[in-house]
Amino acid sequence: xAKSVKVYSTSTCPWCIRAKQFLKDNNIEFQNLxxxxxxxxxxxxxxxxxxxxxxxxxxxxxxxIGFDKEKIKLALGI
Amino acid sequence: MDIHDLIIIGAGPAGIxxxxxxxxxxxxxxxxxxxxxxxxxxxxxxxxxTGYQFxxxxxxxxxxxxxxxxxGTALKENEEVLELEKTGxxxxxxxxxxxxxxxxxxxxxxxxxxxxxxxxxKEFKNRGVTYCATCDGPLFSGKDVAVVGGGNSALDAxxxxxxxxxxxxxxxxxxxxAGDAIMRRKVEEAANVRILNNTFVTAVLGDKFxxxxxxxxxxxxxxxxxxxxxxEIGLTPNSAFAKGVGxxxxxxxxxxxxxxxxxxxxxxxxxxxxxxxxxxxxxAGEGSKALLSAFHYLSKNQFN
Lengths: 78, 304
Hints:
The structure holds two protein chains of two kinds.
Chain A: E1 5-9, H1 14-25, E2 31-34, H2 39-49, E3 56-59, E4 62-65, H3 69-76
Parallel strand pairs in A: 1-2
Antiparallel strand pairs in A: 1-3, 3-4
Chain B: E1 3-9, H1 13-24, E2 29-33, E3 45-46, E4 55-56, H2 57-69, E5 74-77, E6 81-87, E7 90-95, E8 99-107, E9 111-113, E10 129-130, H3 133-136, E11 145-148, H4 152-162, E12 168-171, H5 181-189, E13 193-196, E14 200-206, E15 210-216, E16 221-225, E17 228-231, E18 235-237, E19 266-268, H6 280-300
Parallel strand pairs in B: 1-2, 1-8, 2-5, 8-19, 10-17, 11-12, 11-17, 12-13
Antiparallel strand pairs in B: 3-4, 6-7, 7-8, 9-18, 14-15, 15-16
Helix pairs in contact in B: 1-2, 1-6, 4-5
């Protein structure tokens, strides 16, 4: 079954753009949460990670801070 | 261990251009980099890279990456070089993930944001302390923030934050703001911006996140309540791992017109070097020059 993937991001951050592009290139469906416009999402991200840096990628509960391609691949099993 | 012809350290405009030339020369080489695109990836809008009348930083970085990977180039991404040393004719490159060997090296590791070097800065990095207004600015919507610095990058950060944040304090250690007049005027006229000249940050305080900073001026030391600290005090070269390589007082690697450093077999290109004018197109051109010099070095030397 496909894993549930959430990306906490802002529209302006280069690493967010790259992270989302990477997921798209690998045909991974994800929910994008824009933390700049969505305070609830921002709070949720800060509660999960204790920090404010974007992107944060939540793969079935596994939290990856930043665009770390190897960790993302490992978590997705690709 | 495999002995490569060449290791390219860094995958910004200089390193990637060197890699394209290296692939076309059919060298056995490796690219090791913490990121792809370097500072170019952080640029908002680029209108001075020939061939592109307009392109964003992330888009240009993506095109660079595609060009590099088109040749099946071996790339070690998210990997940081810690040490570079020469033993006999060979260079040993130690990273946070492994060790590699090559006959020559191109250092194209670029620059990174300079840090304040005050207590609390490291602890609160990404917990209110940030070095990229473009990336993190939107997270400070309605909050009071400090922008540290007085040059163009600081003013650019203030202009971005003016529309988002609550109050913005500019903490500038000089008697007045530097930066372009047109930006200065916009900042000076903004209702929610306060400029504190002759002022230094001495500490960042908070619990889970930043709650305040300590500032010091000629007259007094006091605490300023802010939730965000945007550090915009310029850049510093990623050259610490290159021990023994000649550098100028700014720690930029000194290169000659052929990108040769003081150590035979070590070449350098782009913003990590003392070459004047830090521009994407200059870095790319320097990358190609460095590779052609490295190729010449490999051809004329006998390796055991």
